[in-house]
Structure prediction request, 883 residues.
Amino acid sequence: MEHTLKSQAHVADRPRPVKNYINNDPGIWSWMTTVDHKRIGVMYLVGVLSAFLIGGIFALLVRLTLMTPNHMLFGKVLMTAETYNRVFTLHGAIMVFLFIIPSVPAALGNFVLPLMLGAKDVAFPRLNLASFYLWVIGAIMAVMSMIFGAVDTGWTFYTPYSTSTSGTVTLMTMAVFVLGFSSIFTGINFVATVHKLRAPGMGWFEMPLFVWGIYSTAIIQVLATPLLGITLVLLALERVFNIGIFDPKIGGDPVLFQHFFWFYSHPAVYIMILPGMAIISELIPTFSRKTMFGYRAVAYSSVSLALLSFIVWGHHMFVAGQSQLATVIFSALTFLVAIPSGVKMFNWLGTMYKGNISLETPMLYAISFLLLFAIGGLTGIFLGTLSTDVHLTDTYFVVAHFHYVMMGGTVIAFIGGLHYWWPKMTGRMYTEKWAAIGCALVFWGFNQTFLTQFFLGSKGMPRRYYNYLDQFQPLHAFSTYGSWILGAGLFLTAINLLASLRKPYDAPDNPWGGTTLEWQTSSPPITHNFEDQPVLERAPYDYRPEVVSH
Amino acid sequence: MLPPQGSAYAGEVDTVYMALFWLSVFLFLGIAVPAIYFAWRYRYKPGRVTPHQTHNTLLEIIWSVIPLLLCIGIFFWGLDGWMKYAVAPGEAMEIQVVAKKWLWQFEYPDGSRTVGEVHVPVNKPVRFVMTSEDVLHDFFVPDMRVKHDIIPGRYTQVWFTPTVLGTHHVTCAEYCGKGHSDMQAKLVVENEADYQKFVETGGTEWEDYKMKPAEWGKLQWERKGCSTCHTIDGTRIASGGPSWKGIWGKMEKLNNGQEVLVNADYVRESMMQPSAKVVAGFEPIMPTFQGLLREHEIQGLMAFIKSLGNDPNGGPPAPTVLSLPPKPVDQKK
Prediction:
């Protein structure tokens, strides 16, 4: 275990406590009724990873259907247009609402945030459990809408298609409504926790950057999610009682729905990406063993992204029929998003400069994130620019762009964070070699799948297409082959992590030489997190030797 | 990387696109090269002490202000091109577009109409005034680099000045259900004389009329969009209607339990009021072709359907194609 040794050369382990949060009162009932943020985090983790698996299988099916223009596989048509529309809808809805939105905040955040603050738990432990069960109820409703019918609206539920199509759209929108409340409760909880439960000595600018990111996210969750809720309620009312809100046939306005939808769903993009950035802000200083460069700039950029996220929703609607003046203003505002994103990027690079960088798996994911998120961000410029957006919007260019941000950004950061905190959460080290190979496969497969789609989109291939012109076939096939490599990489990663659970506890308290408080307790932590109330003695990411040896 | 350019405007968009492309390549390398270089150059060595650099205000200002200036420049460049897209010249010819699940219908200034195919004269600005009969659609012409959503109950517009003769592609870019990806149309850019002839004859070369009625009808099956839903080989299209093979003269079961003889009257009624008598096992999803088919086109289609019958000589008689439009006067040479 060379990597462990070199990283923790300066960390002296205490004897591992016999009782920890996992084996203290094990039974299933004690887990289901727990108010321990660590257990809730683990249950969320199991939930969101299951959703990731289902959403991923749907994604592979979509790619398989598009591999050939006649959708044949072994001499049979894989799926009809109706089935295809349902499958891509479920892929999108599951990935956004059941996986990505809760992935980092609710699963990793729940586990790590109180530990990082030196707290015993979140501010409202019971509310935390309630939000988990709301997630479960929402997930069950979403699964039921798949079993008892189908939804073929796309994850965006655009009207009047969504108010006129058959199927279980109402049930699905109510599922998303319930999931929204799960998200709001988590947000409220985290805001209160960050304000009230910081360890003695921890001022706002001694908080780890992960906390800053999750805090900014929580603010958006609390402010924006209610709007999604009310919009979906209006949609359901229109479907059930024929109230004319969005359907022009009964006096509504379909573009109004898009405004409502994106007024939530654009901030939701930041609910998804800010936690990813927050993880990267932990990984880079830790594995560079160097003081975080521009700590305040990175913290402020999280907050400014959260605020900007509320005033750029119209850039999803440049050709949707909003007023032309609005289009111009939204384009101008959209460019502002580039500034804080760039600031984060440059400060991460500044942190690596003259560092002492070891390339364990979490750092490999962090560097993957830098490259993939750079592509995701830069292609966003094409879409924010008015004249090029008109050609590129609603094509595969957009599909590729948001996959680079959501998957290349958030999901890559999530998996990196999972590897980073895995020893803390489970008390076990995974096999470094297989984790690194998994990361390489994911990076390769992801780029082959989605870089290809920028070219498809530029050539004019519209999104959500079952049939396509023959000229697009080679690129579609190439993209599909990439999805298999991506799938194989994720599968390998999952097996490697799960295999580590068969071993006895072997993780040291601080395998990576981290400076934040979660590394000062045992791996896995005891039920009450810390033996004594920790007091912050050094700022996070302070790697000066005189401070470390102190 | 981009589709062929069908207009001067397309060239302007492509200039911006290519500039952004190379800028992105440059900036990507500006991030990727340091990231990988630092990971190698400053790779882990036990005991190495890293400098305590907390921040550098000047650097923060530099890497905020330079991207900001760059972004302001790009915004105005994009705005400049977009203004041309957004404002159609007053003299532009108007074509009315009606989009519905899942076909395109075009109406020309003289009132003639086509389905699934639109002809425009070269080098003249043309404006499409669009509305939808059901859900959202989107008029996307990749070669012209233009696109706009089509909204039921409202009118939106797209315009361009085509400069390249030949056929371009119109494709629906806003998700509209199971036939979304089949919602295609041909955009034919032709010179003024050919365009005038097209409008007069309804898109039919005069030579077509020399064809036998069934052959002429087959051409209509392809041109008017019938082939999107009705096969002629007995197979069934998943979201479509009955195949035409062998139906002429047949007693068809309807979804209300009654039966109907497939003859000229039934076929005509099915084109004009498609939901009046729906064959059992099919959904009433066909749009009406009232006003979209000329009399001789309907008759040609009937002759074609009859020719696909089990017994082309049996069954009720199909009308013969009689009402040819007047032969255009000014033929090319």
